Amino acid sequence: MMVRSALIPLVAALLGACATPAARAPLAAPVAAASPSPAPAKPKPLAEPAPAQYTRPCASLPSTPAEAFDCDRRSILAMAGEFRVRFAFDETAALSPGYAPRDPQRSGATELVEVIADDGRSIALQHILVMRIGDEDHVIKHWRQDWHYEPKTLLRYRGNGRFDREKVAAADARGAWSQIVYEVDDAPRYTGIGRWAHVDGIDAWTSDLTLRPLPRREYSNRKDYQVLEVVNRHTLTPGGWVHEQDNTKVVIDESGARHALARERGINEYVRIGDFDFGPGRAYWSKTKGYWADVRARWEAGLAMADSFVLTPDPDGEPRIMEFFGQAERVEKGETIARDEIDAILVRHGLPLPAGKAVAETR
């Protein structure tokens, strides 16, 4: 099995860093007495066909706050499972003078989504990539999404590695769920808040307008914008679920002024499958989940220390990720990682941590 720290470039490519080029025609072609060109191929739908049999998590429209809460929970938990994922990103509008839209991006993966925490009002879903390439299995801990009911605060990304904690008004929190998305090493990426709707046979959550770092598919090959301004929507489907993104690529100059570069549509479709062996992913998680629980706990300790901080480099920074994945590889081989070693990485990359000697080690 490939060393997981060496998988970072591979995953960047698989998840869209290498775009699938789309044919581009000139605005005005010269007239020529050539043979007629063949008709262009009919574009394929972005959505996959839905299975005929489907039981929704919520059989009927909830009529009380308690029923709505229960329906919301079941909808979040329904995103766990075994999936084939298709990623599609298309720039739909050039918003800055002289900007030339980039080619569409298409990629895919097979992904395991596990419920790793559920205390009723908070649910954590861990994504784990499991890929079969040739005769080898490749496993990598992927992103994590935490859901919190009626949150009192939100950890907001502001750009240039900075995060601020903001209070949520009681009226805005009532009946709402926040979604916090984390990087592969459990660094925070972005937070949104919204409400689940269970109408017209659809179960869907829509976020507010959320600022987030550059996605990994563009982090390594684009420097012409600094943040995405996004509205996220998660919708359950008969075949699984889909994450739709209404993205605006935004430039932040040295003075802090912002201007939009381009608009983008993103569609990540998760389709349930039963013909792929996710055993290597479960085996990896079984060996390393104690270590990653310690990493999450130290992140949380640091995040609670300050209402504003800057991570260096930005959340996507590979140096920090490689250090954590290197520790996880040692754990997989049977080593124990002391809390001090985890703390050293976090402090080195800008996270404040409480003083005091380490007392907990990897379970």
Structure commentary:
- The chain has 363 residues and is of the alpha+beta class.
- The protein folds into two domains: 4-16 and 55-272; 279-348, no CATH class.
- 22% of the residues lie in helices and 38% in strands.
- It has seven helices and 14 strands.
- The protein has helices spanning 8-17, 65-77, 170-173, 216-219, 279-303, 318-332, 339-348; strands spanning 81-94, 105-118, 122-133, 136-149, 153-159, 162-167, 177-182, 188-199, 202-207, 210-213, 227-237, 240-252, 258-272, 308-310.
- The strands form two sheets. It has a ten-stranded antiparallel barrel. Strands 5-6-14 form a three-stranded antiparallel β-sheet, with no helix packed on it.
- Strand 5 (153-159) and strand 6 (162-167) form a beta hairpin.
- Helix 5 crosses helix 6 and helix 5 (279-303) packs across helix 7.
- The chain is globular, with a radius of gyration of 22 Å.
- The two termini are 24 Å apart.
- Residues 13-33 and 357-363 have low confidence and may be disordered.
Give, in order, the helices and strands.
HHEEEEEEHEEEEHEEEHEHH
What structural class should be given to the helix and strand makeup?
alpha+beta
Tell me, what's the shape?
Answer: globular
Helical amount among residues, as a percent range? 10-25%
Low-pLDDT runs: 13-33, 357-363
Instruction: Domain count, please report it.
Output: 2
First and last CA, distance: 24 Å
Number of strands: 14
Percent of residues in β-strands: 35-45%
Oligomer: single chain
The largest beta-sheet arranges its strands as 1-2-3-4-7-8-9-11-12-13
- Mean pLDDT level: 87
How can the largest sheet be summarized?
10 strands, antiparallel, barrel
Tally the helices: what do you get? 7
* Rg over C-alpha atoms, rounded to the nearest angstrom: 22 Å
